[in-house]
């Protein structure tokens, strides 16, 4: 059965299929007449073939733009609030080891026994592999236990930047994107991202670690000052 929708709903569904158009509407950098003309036939199809005036589509686009800007502003406030209340910690001398699952299954207890005294360990399970972020001093223990034939990749000389955020990070979309985009703009590559409840762990090459830490710390301080009215 054909479901009747309004012009406004039809327009919103159509533009939601194009992230670029959505971004332009949020920033109000759209030629509304040109966009209305471009999607006019799609709107007509969505309304069961009914003819729709260009002006009606244009007005629907303008309202959609206003709604998107309000939503974006609310989300931005939530994202920036989480980042501003995040605390950083840096750990150096980390190795990142990816191993085949069959090489580690049944050996987890022994692995934990061998490395229980180490200052850093993160274990992530993928579809066919485990990735171990670990104190670099433990590499030989891992290799001897698992066997080098089961090792897929090894990244030495890594650092872990640990971001400890408020619990709102769990329900606020876009926080990780904001953080990674900030590092991207400053030329920092992320080797691995690990999430553990409210902690986000970024593994980066040690040569980038200080710069990455300083970039994030500066951003956090800027946001805290902005929210408190300081300059």
Brief overview:
The protein has 231 residues and is of the alpha+beta class. The protein has 9 helices and 6 strands; from the N terminus they run ααααβααββαβαββα. The radius of gyration is 24 Å and the shape is elongated.
What ranges have pLDDT less than 50 throughout 5 or more consecutive residues? none
Binned, the helix content reads: 40-55%
| Radius of gyration using CA atoms only | 24 Å
Biggest sheet overview: 6 strands, antiparallel
Which CATH first-tier class of the largest domain would you pick?
Answer: Alpha Beta
Structural class: alpha+beta
The tally of helices reads 9
Q: Report mean pLDDT, rounded to a whole number.
A: 91
> What is the H/E string?
HHHHEHHEEHEHEEH
Q: Might you state the CATH topology name of the largest domain? A: VC0802-like
Question: How would you describe the overall organization of this protein?
Answer:
There is one protein chain. The chain starts with 6 loop residues before the first helix and ends with a helix. Helices cover 52% and strands 23% of the residues. 23% of the residues are buried. α1 (7-16) crosses α3 (32-46) and α4 (54-84) crosses α9. It folds into 2 domains: 7-78; 85-228, VC0802-like (2-Layer Sandwich), CATH 3.30.2130.10. It has 231 residues and is of the alpha+beta class. The mean pLDDT is 91.
What labels describe this entry?
alpha+beta; VC0802-like; 2 domains; 6-stranded antiparallel β-sheet; 9 helices; 6 strands
């Amino acid at each position: 059965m054909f479901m009747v929708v309004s012009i406004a709903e039809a327009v919103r569904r159509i533009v939601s299929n194009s992230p670029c158009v959505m971004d332009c509407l949020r920033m109000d950098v759209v030629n509304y007449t040109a966009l209305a003309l471009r999607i006019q036939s799609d709107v007509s199809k969505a309304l069961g073939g009914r003819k729709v005036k260009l002006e009606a589509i244009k007005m629907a686009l303008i309202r959609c733009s206003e709604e998107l800007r309000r939503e974006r502003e609310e989300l931005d406030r939530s994202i920036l609030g989480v980042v501003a209340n995040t605390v950083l910690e840096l750990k150096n001398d980390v190795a990142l080891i990816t191993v085949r699952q069959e090489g580690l299954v049944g050996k987890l207890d022994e692995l934990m026994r061998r490395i229980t005294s180490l200052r850093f360990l993160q274990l992530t399970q993928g579809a066919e592999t485990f990735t171990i972020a670990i104190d670099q001093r433990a590499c030989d223990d891992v290799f001897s236990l698992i066997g080098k034939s089961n090792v897929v990749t090894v990244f030495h000389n890594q650092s872990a930047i640990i971001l400890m955020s408020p619990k709102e990070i769990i329900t606020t979309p876009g926080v990780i994107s904001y953080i990674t985009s900030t590092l991207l703009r400053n030329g920092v590559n992320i080797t691995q991202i690990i999430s553990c409840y409210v902690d986000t762990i970024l593994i980066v090459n040690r040569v980038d670690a200080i710069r990455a830490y300083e970039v994030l710390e500066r951003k956090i301080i800027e946001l805290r000052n902005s929210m408190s009215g300081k300059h």
